[in-house]
Amino acid sequence: MADEIAHQDENQIIAERRAKLAGLRARGNPFPNDFAREHLAAALHEAYGQLEREALEQGKVSVAVAGRLMLKRVMGKASFATIQDMSGRIQLYVTRDAAGEETHESFKHFDIGDILGARGTLFRTK
Question: Quick one: how far is CA 95 from the chain centroid?
């Protein structure tokens, strides 16, 4: 009985993933690979971790990070995510205004475990 339920759950997950893939293909290349990571999480923490919020805002440090999506919280027009690369973890703040409507909508459909790249300005939350 338990094996039958587990098999049904697995089949449902596979069907959901295939439906998501079909949706991604309908919007274009489902697996783009042209993103160039420029920074590692640990290097950013080491270089900028000691700076105060105001100093980061004045410096306008542009970063490009990539990693596996470990945590995602979608809250309307803004979302938080944590990605993990080979050196550690870093949090992303994704807003519809900054990322654009289409990109933010796509982000909402990412799954934990997906690999993604992000560009933006480094800052510290309050």
Answer: 12
